[in-house]
Specification:
Elements (H helix, E strand, L loop, with lengths): L1 E4 L5 H6 L6 E5 L2 H10 L6 E5 L2 H9 L7 E4 L9 H14 L6
Parallel strand pairs: 1-2, 1-4, 2-3
Bound molecules: S-adenosylmethionine.
The site of S-adenosylmethionine has 21 residues, from strand 1, helix 1, strand 2, helix 3 and helix 4.
Length: 101
C-alpha cells in the first residue's frame, strides 16, 4: 500500500499506480482535490481524500493492515492556494514559530 499526504496534481500517484494494489492520498486544497478525483476516477485502487492531513491521516491509516510506504509530502509552498497558506499560518501559530509565510 502507498499512502501519500499532499496530492497536488497527482504526479506521484500517477507514477506509482502500477506498483501498488492500493494507493491513498490526501489533499488540503478543495480544487486540487477535485482535480485529483477527476484524474483518478477510473483507477479503483486509488482513493483521494480531502482535508488537513494532520486530521485525515489517522482515519486513512486506520484501515491499513498490510505493509505500507508513507510519502509525507504535504507542505506549504509559495504556489499554495489561500486555504493551504491559512492552514500553515495556523499551524505555525500553534507551534510557536515566527517565520513569515
Ligand atoms: C509538494 S506538493 C505535493 C506533491 C505530490 N506529493 C507529488 O509528489 O506529486 C504539496 C501539497 O501538499 C498540500 N498540502 C499542504 N498542506 C497540507 C495539509 N496540511 N494536508 C494535506 N495537504 C496539504 C498542498 O496543497 C500541495 O498540493
Amino acid at each position: 500500500m502507498f499512502v501519500e499526504t499532499g496530492t497536488y496534481l497527482g504526479e506521484m500517484i500517477n507514477a506509482q499506480e502500477g506498483n501498488f494494489d492500493r494507493l491513498l492520498t490526501v489533499e488540503l486544497d478543495p480544487e486540487l482535490y477535485r482535480k485529483a478525483v477527476r484524474r483518478f476516477r477510473r483507477l479503483a485502487q486509488v482513493s483521494v481524500f480531502q482535508g488537513d492531513s494532520s486530521v485525515e491521516l489517522p482515519k486513512m491509516v486506520a484501515a491499513v493492515n498490510e505493509p505500507a510506504i508513507f510519502w509525507l509530502d504535504a507542505h506549504y509552498s509559495k504556489a499554495s492556494p489561500p486555504a493551504v497558506r491559512l492552514t500553515h499560518l495556523s499551524l505555525r501559530t500553534r507551534v510557536g514559530t515566527a517565520a513569515p509565510i
